[in-house]
Specification:
Structural class: alpha+beta
Oligomer: single chain
Helix content: 40-55%
Distance between the termini: 48 Å
Strand content: 15-25%
Number of strands: 10
Number of helices: 11
Largest sheet: 5 strands, mixed
Length: 298
Amino acid sequence: MAVIPRYVTHYPNMDSSLPFHVKIHRLENGFESHRHDFMEFSYVIEGYGSEIINGMEHRMMPGTFTLVLPYQYHEIISEPGTPLILYNCNFGIHLYAQGEQVPGIDWLQAEESLPPFAQIADSEHAYFVDVLEEMHREYAGDGLWKHALLKAKLTEVLVRFDRFRRKVNPPTPMSRTLCLKDRAQPKGNIWQVIRYIHTHYQDALTLTGVADKFGFSVPYLSELFKKAVGQNFLAFVHEVRIRQACALLISTEMNVSDIALETGYGSYNTFSRIFREMKGMTPAAYRKLKGIQQQPSF
């Protein structure tokens, strides 16, 4: 009987004003196949093994940087006697505001033509170790402008990684031609739709309206959603909205009714019902349980 990969729904600190988490992992036996709806990168500092992303395997060793997109199945295998020690970072796809171009977020269609990993050159290894160590130290502290600095460091790491992999894997004229041909019909792909929902969750989103915007038929977009994210369109929209609501409940003193409107619900009763179904408690109870954590804005 086939083993169904696990769907990871949470990471530490995700329901906050800074949906970001970084830690150092020691993987004696690797990590089982799983997927999630947030972004993830890893950087190996010790050990050897391999990683499988959507069925494609690549080697892992000191200097291997991997960027995993939302909903990609991936697993890590450590070689016996050489446990993998790596930095692992999780962050929400909505961490960056609409229009901010960051590798792996706004450029999802381009990302599909690039490898999800790169073996960083020895000459740049020290840089990545230093900046990730600083990021890890900053995350654990409570310094002034902590969030702003973490976001800047995250952006810097992603840009340096993307520059390096494009340098060692330059796009060919043929791949660019194919990319343009693929974009002609339909006007977008499922990753652009997912990004659109994450940045327009406040709007009155419907499957028909989104399908029309990106040039899909309604049945085809519905099928793509179930295949890519493992749930239907409406459930996905509710998940994105409730996640935003949780962040606002924790990090602000906004009235719950205002949070309902802010996250795309025209009716407080609808918001409260959906929230209870997903979180098992009322929004007010969730706020009381988590406590208001005031954080400086970006």
